[in-house]
Amino acid sequence: GGRRATRITICTAVGIWVLAFICAIPALIGSHIKEIRDDDDVLRFEVCYPFPEEWLDYQYPKVMVMARFLVLYIIPLTIIFGFYLSMAISLITSTRNVPGELQGMHRQIRARKKVAVTVLVFVAVFAICFAPFHAFMLFFYFNDQSQELYSPFWHYFRIFGFCLCYINSCANPVALYFVSGAFRKHFNSLQFVENGALNTHLSIEDVLQEVVVPFAPFIGNQFILMHDNARPYTWRGVTS
């Protein structure tokens, strides 16, 4: 029932926070001030270093960098790529079962293909945004000569990768703007003034064709949406 679902939701949220706290304990305990000295043993600067080098027989930094690379990048990328690719394939293959002679079906086929491209773009955005950061970390901690090879290129590459990680949080709407006509039309209507008045109109047909209809195979055999004039929009889908 509703109470059971609420308890499960609360327990899940609490469990996520507890797990996040446990994962942060090593950094909380092990972070320390590290002195960076030159060849003449002259102190150049000090940094807050999150990896105690003496842990795990001086292998702790490599273990943590590799663990983060796998847990925060490779595994999530593999999972979302698998699911999104399956979704895209289902959307594309389902167009073969749509009767082409029915009115408006060609537009629905194009809309589904657009959604298939959209979900794959999201995977590409995730991969691109986090790849530079992890590439630098792997280079710096697994290359024994990284200190000698560290150059302005690697310095700016590190900053670039760090910024891309945060840009990923706002990249999906930007990508959606370029691949979804309905999203782009609605966004433009909210941002630009036409004839001195704000145009916020987005027709139900646009929403159906660009957003709802492409996902019909994942909803069920039939769905009905009511327009404001009480005329139902009905589409018989094909269950994937």
TrEMBL record:
Keywords: G-protein coupled receptor, Membrane, Receptor, Transducer, Transmembrane, Transmembrane helix. InterPro entries: GPCR_Rhodpsn, GPCR_Rhodpsn_7TM. GO terms for molecular function: neuropeptide receptor activity. Pfam families: 7tm_1. Residues 1-176 form the G-protein coupled receptors family 1 profile domain. GO terms for cellular component: plasma membrane. It is found in: Membrane. It is a multi-pass membrane protein. The chain crosses the membrane at residues 7-29, 70-94, 115-142, 154-179. Its main location: membrane. It comes from the Eukaryota. SUPFAM superfamilies: Family A G protein-coupled receptor-like. Belongs to the G-protein coupled receptor 1 family. This is Neuropeptide CCHamide-1 receptor-like. It comes from Sitophilus oryzae (Rice weevil). The gene is LOC115880886.
